[in-house]
Structures are given as structure tokens and as C-alpha cells.
Amino acid sequence: MIPFSPPTLTEDDINAVVEVLRSGWITSGPVGRRFEEQLAQWAGTSGAVALSSATAALELALRAAGAGPGDEVVVPAYTYTASASVIDHVGARIVMVDSEPGSPFPSVERIAAAVTDRTRAVITVDLAGIPFDSRPLATLLAGRGRIDTGLGAALGRPVIISDSAHSLGASLEGTPAGSLADLTAFSFHAVKNLTTAEGGALTWRADLPTDREELARWVRTYSLHGQTKDALAKSRGASWEYDVIAPAYKCNLPDTLAALGLSQLGRYEQTLQRRRELLAHYAQGLADTGVQLLEHGGDGVASSGHLAIATLPVPGVTERNRVIQDLYAAGVSANVHYKPLPLLTAYRDLGFDIADFPHAYAFYTRELTLPLHLALSDADVDRVCAALAGSLRHISHNSAGSAASAA
Ligand SMILES: Cc1ncc(COP(=O)(O)O)c(C=O)c1O
């Protein structure tokens, strides 16, 4: 079976974790700080705080933006639930935008059109590892939204938060993911390009107009119960005394997991290169099949090559799901990214209706995500392409047959 997205773990990764386990300090501490320093370099910025997930990072980003009850936050409909659920967590109203025709992404104009005088923040998504260019969005949003206090007031527009769960190492004209939006959330979940099993990080633009050291301190404190001293600081000397300044969260990343990330960062350039090679190989292998791969390059775009998102030449969901079954029978595990949020019970219950998001729905109906990971050989990619081509031939033959018998 060709799996969809297993983690790549080396002996060095395992040894790095074992070293922490033997060190006497297993929760957040010096290894996490080294991981954060290197992440900040990858993101082209001055700092990062490692957290337990991208979801935690997104929620803290919204809190840092001051989003709460009475505010609105704009988010694409074509994304994973975590991009939007965090808006609900902070008590703000989710404002969803459709994609552009034939694309999973909304345009900056469409996002800007959804901004009202209650908009505190906008969340953009680097789907598949393709960095979303939020710089023109920043220009369009100048002077708009709810910008009475805090970061929005300093920026003179709603805060732009990037859900960069997929895009560590991506860049636009040399500007890395992490330096494009005001605040950026990365994920290190088990299926991501770089994994700590579960994990994430929050970063901020190097020139964000705020006290960035204070922001880092705030994020760190809020990730640890709002406690003024972390466990490491408390363990030193007779330094037990602490305060709790807010009834906050517990979403720090322990050193045991940070060690895994730090070890993988050491070879991350090669990881990116191989993922991009595999995508190029898919593009070649699928050239004559009518399958369209989502474009990962061009125009100064360097994607992180996280997901091989394809649009199939089939009428809709039934045939797309048939392809997934055929691939499975041929030993290939495929997936769908994503069911647009209004199709999910939670968002339907919040009043969203998929009929209002026709482009996101249309993209979903023919979407298929192919395996993409470092255990994949070029021959495996050829096998996936052949199985996909075979399934498509079978489906078009059957539908031609049923059209003929209906005539
Ligand atoms: C687009 C997107 N955003 C956010 C997340 C949440 O990441 P995490 O599991 O680290 O919270 C994911 C996870 O798959 C994702 O795909």
C-alpha cells in the first residue's frame, strides 16, 4: 500500500528525543527555545513561540489581535475547521468567504469585500503550502474594520493572521511564510512536512508595529496558564514564587517534542526540495490524463509542497469518490482537502449554507489529494499516476456506455 502521508523519522530524530528523555528536563525548556530560534530564521522574523498546535497558535493570534464578542473575523470557506473554529472559541462572529471560480483560494478583493466596521481580523490560508499574498490585502484594508485599540489601531487596519499550517519554508519573491501576514501560525502535526507529532508555533512579522518582545512574552505566558514563571524558571534555586495574571491556557510545546522538530529542521531544505521534485514528477506523469494539479510555483512563488491537490476530469462527487475507491483497490491511499466548512454539521448549525459558496463547493466536488511524502519513490509516483489514469479511463468508459444505453 502507498500510504497518504506517513511521517519521516530518522535515527537522528529518535536519538534527539531520547537525549531529552535522558536529560532530566522533559517539558518546555532549552531545546524548545533553540527550536523557536531556528523557526524564526525560517520565517524570516525575530521570534517565535512553540505551542501545542497551530490551532492554539491561531487562537492566541486572535486574542493578541483583541478579537472577542461583538467582533467579526473573515476566513475562507475552503479550509480546515481549525482556521474558523478559533474564531468561535474567542466569541467573535465567523464571516466566511467563497473561493474564486476554479480555485480553492479567495481573492484579496473578495476578502476585502467581506470586511465591515466590526472586522477585527482576517485569517488567510496557505493551502497546500502555497503562500497567500496578504500584502495587497493589507493595502486594501487600510483604514477599514474595527481598529479602535491594540494591534489593529497600530496597523490602521484589521490584523491579518496567516494560517500557515501547511507552509513552513514557503516564500513569495523571497519573503518567507511567517513574514507576509502580521501574525502566522504553523503546524507540526504528524502529517505535516515537519512534525513534532503534535505541535505548532506562532510568529509575527519582524516589523510588526508593536513591542514584539512584549508580544512574545504575552504569548508564552498565555500558553502557560498566564503564570509569570514557567516550570524551568521555578525549578531554579529557591525561586518558587509566581503570580497568575490571567485565567489563560495550557498549550506549550514540551522539549521532548521540540527535539523532534529541531532535528528535522536540520534537513528541512532537502525535505522541501524532494517534495517539490515529487510534485514536478506528478505533473509530468499526469500530463495527458486531464487531471489538473494545483499550481505550486511560478511568479516568485516557492511553495512548501505540502499537498498534491488535483482536480479530476469527472462530473462530480460520485465519480471522484469512485476514483478514491479504485486507487485504494490499486494500493494507493488518497484523500480530499477539504470539505468546505458549510458542508460540516458544526458550521451548518451556525447558519452557514453551502449554496452561498458555489465556487468552494464546485472545487471540492472534483478535488483529490494524492500521496506526497518522503517515503515516496519516483516509481511510486508513476504507480499512482498509472492507477489514477486507469480509474479515469474506466469511469469515462462506463459513463460513455451508460449514455449509449440510455440513448
Ligand atoms: C489548514 C489547517 N489549519 C490548521 C490546522 C490545525 O493544525 P493543528 O492540528 O496543528 O492544530 C490544520 C491541520 O491539519 C490545517 O490543515
TrEMBL record:
InterPro entries: DegT/StrS_aminotransferase (IPR000653), PyrdxlP-dep_Trfase (IPR015424), PyrdxlP-dep_Trfase_major (IPR015421), PyrdxlP-dep_Trfase_small (IPR015422). The modification N6-(pyridoxal phosphate)lysine is found at residue 192. Its cofactor is pyridoxal 5'-phosphate. Gene3D superfamilies: Aspartate Aminotransferase, domain 1 (3.90.1150.10), Type I PLP-dependent aspartate aminotransferase-like (Major domain) (3.40.640.10). CDD domains: AHBA_syn. It comes from the Bacteria. GO terms for biological process: polysaccharide biosynthetic process. Keywords: Aminotransferase, Pyridoxal phosphate, Transferase. One of its GO terms (molecular function) is transaminase activity. SUPFAM superfamilies: PLP-dependent transferases (SSF53383). The active site is at 192 (proton acceptor). Belongs to the DegT/DnrJ/EryC1 family. This is Degt/dnrj/eryc1/strs aminotransferase. It comes from Actinomyces glycerinitolerans.
